[in-house]
Amino acid sequence: MISKITGKLLYKSPSKIIVMTSGVGFEILISIKTYEKLPDIESNIDIDTHLYVKEDDLKLIGFLDLKEKDLFLKLLTVSGISVRIALSSLSFYSIDDLCRMIVDSDVDFIKRIPGIGKKLAERIIIELREKLESIGSKEDSLIFADSKIEEIKDALRSLGYSNQEINNAFSRLDIQKIKESSTQDILKTILKEVYNK
After folding, report:
1. What is the rounded distance in angstroms from the CA atom of residue 197 to the CA atom of residue 4?
2. Burial (0-12, 13-18, 19+ Cβ within 10 Å), 58
3. Which of 52, 53, 132, 161 fits a disulfide with 156 by CB distance 3.0 to 4.6 angstroms?
4. Which has the closest alpha carbon to 8: 32, 28, 25?
């Protein structure tokens, strides 16, 4: 098993890199999040890898974050998730956001990922939710949870809204807007635009 490669970065793109080590150039698939953290071409790089083997298909996938590698391997255990879809998931959302969505059963957010429909999103939640919850309880009390979103959800629950209504509301908001806006502004947006209050 090839679990780590150290060498010179010869090529990089949002989907793959080539690393030269001991006279061999390794093509390594990556997520966009990993691409954003890469050093310049010709720099030395130390990257964790996973060798995916299926019949006559061999792929080497690289990670600069071990949390990303762990989540990638968990995604691959779900029936219907290919290497392409797993990398797409890690490219579309941050690790923390994706884990929170799975733990909170946010089907509408997850099915926005290219290649994932409603049934596959539900399967991901069913098969991974407990695994991610257990990770969170071992470390920083749900390390992957987004405290801002949880705070807003608690506020909406106190106003009498159901989990389904709340999840539907969040599915209409852009994830980047949630990150950049204050808790109060997001709550106002949901009450005014989504619930017409």
Report:
1. 54
2. exposed
3. 161
4. 25
